[in-house]
Write a structure and sequence with these properties.
By secondary structure, the protein is α/β, with parallel strands linked by helices. 29% of the residues lie in helices and 16% in strands. It is globular.
């Protein structure tokens, strides 16, 4: 063996190098074993709380747009082609999973096709054609829901944005529908040479049916059953049973929905305040105007249809956060048991409070009210309903 100066020091260095090499090899061996074990586990969606189904959403409708996805959900946006607004869909956006929620035992039960549909429709003066579009899209929407649920069990209710009924001027001049401006029977003061013009501009105003109007017809959040005023039928709608909403098996479902959805253009647009009233316990409890509409074991879908965003200038009571909280409270704290569809002029600024409340829910879709066909928006909503139903678990009791 050749001896070199400092040989003992070199030998010590070699021994230390060999020890580090052995340690590294042992670490790599341990990691390799762990990787093999991980690869051999089941590929099904298992968690510590039981199996869960994959959550999926329908693809965005045709047209240019963008799609982004994450492991916890999907959101899509696409050009609406009208008014500069873009349709937006959100289903289960990414959330902080630092604290895992307690899902209980087993997978969610699902809503089993039991859905409460709440349509919040403005009676603003420019709503006539928008209500007609909703009525046209309704059959397609119901058909899409029926395809997804074999046992489709629905409640369908329309609520307006005020606590009034009909056209106030016309009601005041009843029972003299032929009354003219300038005559004692007309509450309007003559101006701009309109003396002699009809006091009530609704030729078919139901003065002969005023005895059918009840206190519920003038109550915030009560279901529409007798629309009156401009651009509506001016007659009671043929709803089966003594209810203010439609239930499973309603005869002539499409025709009856069209009757209650065309609420007219003789009222207000305070939909945020009306939504809060519509989900309160007293109005849905036994003896309330909407007795039995809101069910604990049903998914809730809320649809806003308005040509404005219920901004602060309209004096709708409450804030978007308070309106949303009222809905969440009505669903026992589960915001994922609610699907929101907003058809309006949305930009989510301070002037568009309906957009703001809509986006507070994990499952929501925004659509421009200016599009020619509301069918695609309802298709997106139907897909969200399917996704939300898959993860729905009714409250205990």
């Amino acid at each position: 063996m050749r001896v070199i100066p400092g040989g003992e020091a070199v030998a010590a260095v070699d021994r230390r190098a060999k020890m580090r090499y052995v340690a590294v090899v042992r670490i790599h061996h341990t990691v390799a074993l762990l990787l093999v074990a991980a690869c051999q586990t089941s590929t099904t969606n298992q968690t510590g709380f039981g199996s869960t189904p994959e959550i999926t959403t329908a693809p965005a409708s045709t047209g240019e747009g963008s799609t982004s996805s994450s492991n916890s959900g999907t959101s899509t946006s696409e050009a609406s082609g009208s008014g500069g607004n873009a349709a937006e869909t959100s289903a289960e956006p990414p959330r902080d999973l630092g604290v895992m929620p307690d899902f209980g035992d087993g997978a969610p039960i699902g809503c089993n096709g039991k859905i409460d549909f709440l349509f919040m429709i403005s009676r603003d003066s420019n709503m006539q054609f928008r209500q007609e579009q909703v009525a046209l899209a309704f059959p397609q929407f119901i058909a899409a829901i029926q395809e997804k649920f074999a046992d489709f069990d629905y409640h369908i209710m329309v609520v307006t944005g005020d606590d009034g009924w009909g056209n106030n001027n016309c009601t005041l001049m009843c029972p003299t529908p032929a009354c003219k401006i300038g005559e004692p029977c007309c509450p309007l003061s003559p101006q701009n040479g309109d003396t002699g013009e009809p006091c009530c501009t609704v030729p078919q105003y139901p003065c002969h049916d005023l005895d059918l109007v009840t206190q519920c017809d003038r109550t915030w959040g009560a279901g529409e059953v007798f629309p009156a005023g401009t651009a509506t039928t001016n007659k009671p709608c043929p709803i089966d049973g003594d209810r203010r909403y439609l239930v499973n098996g309603q005869s002539d479902l499409e025709g009856t929905f069209e009757c209650i959805a065309k609420v007219g253009a003789s009222g207000n647009m305070l939909l945020g305040q009306a939504l809060t009233a519509a989900v309160q316990s007293p109005i849905n409890d036994k003896g309330g105007c909407n007795d039995g509409f809101l069910r604990d074991d049903a998914l809730l879908m809320v649809t806003f249809i308005a040509t404005n965003g219920d901004n602060k200038g309209f004096h709708s009571e409450g804030t978007p956060a308070e309106w949303a909280q009222a809905v969440v409270d009505a669903k026992h704290g589960d915001d994922k048991s609610v699907v929101m569809l907003n058809i309006g002029y949305f930009d989510c600024s301070d002037g568009d409070r309906l957009c703001q409340v809509t986006k507070l829910f994990p499952f929501h879709h925004l659509e421009s009210i200016l599009v020619a066909d509301y069918g695609p928006a309802f298709d997106q909503a139907a897909s969200l309903v399917e996704t939300a139903c898959a993860g729905f678990t009714p409250p205990p009791g």
